[in-house]
Amino acid sequence: MSPMGQITGQIRVLIVDDEALIRHALRTFISWEAGLEVVGDASDGIEAVAAARRLRPDVVLMDLRMPAMGGIEAIATITRDLPEVRVLAVTTFASEGLVVQALRAGASGYLVKDSEPSQVTAAIREVHEGGTSMSPHIAQDLIRQVTASPTATDPAPSASPAPLTPRERSIVELLGRGLSNAEIAAELHLAEPTVKANLGRVIAKWGVRDRIQVLVHAVSHGIIEIGAHERGGEAATAARPR
Question: What is d(CA 107, CA 72) in angstroms, rounded to the nearest whole number?
Answer without folding.
Answer: 9
